[in-house]
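Support case: user asked for a sample of complex input and structure output to validate their parser. Sending the pair below.
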Amino acid sequence: DVVMTQTPVSLPVSLGGQASISCRSSQSLVHSNGNTYLHWYLQKPGQSPQLLIYRVSNRFSGVPDRFSGSGSGTDFTLKISRVEPEDLGDYYCLQSTHFPWTFGGGTKLELK
Amino acid sequence: EVQLQESGPGLVKPSQSLSLTCSVTGYSITSSYRWNWIRKFPGNKLEWMGYINSAGSTNYNPSLKSRISITRDTSKNQFFLQVNSVTTEDTATYYCARGYYTVDYWGQGVMVTVSS
C-alpha cells in the first residue's frame, strides 16, 4: 500500500495567519494516464470530510482562494492563508492513484 | 444536489455481520462514478474500504477482501456494505461517498460499535 505521511500532526495558528501542511507519499502518485490523484479534505467536528483541493491544485466548488495546493510526484503541500475560524479542524490528504486508496494521518489545525 | 445518507444498526456483536445502507438522492448510481465506503476509526485514521461502480463492478481493499461485500439496489438508488465476522477493531464511523478518482460528496456518517 502507498503510505501517506502527513505533517505536522498538530498546527497551532493565529487567526489571519498562514498555515502549511505537508503530505508525502511512499511512491509517485503520477497515474499512468498522466494525472496525479492527490486530494485534500477538511473535517470539522461533527461533520463529514469536505473536499477542498482535488488533483493537487484544483479548488473544489465554493472553496475560497485562501486555500491552495501544490506539489508533484511524492511531495505535496496545502497552504491556507489568512486563517479564519471556520478553517479550524482536521485536514487529510488522500491518494487515489493506486489501489487501495490511502489517507494521510491527519493534521489538526487549532488556535494558538 | 447529490446527497448520500447512511443507515444501519449502531451496535453489532462480535463475530456477527455489519450491514449498512447508503441512500442516494439527486444522482443515479447507474449514471457514473464509483460509490465508495470509507471508515474512520477512533483515533482518526481513515480507511478506504471499497466501491461499486455505475456498472455494478466492485473493488475492495485487500485488507478486507475476504470479509467485505458491496452490493446495490438500482431501483431504490441505494448501495450496501456488509462486513462479516466483525471484531472490536471494526468499531468506526462509516461513510458512504461518491467519487471516481476524486471523492467529492460524503454522507454524514454512521457510528458503529462492535461490542457484546
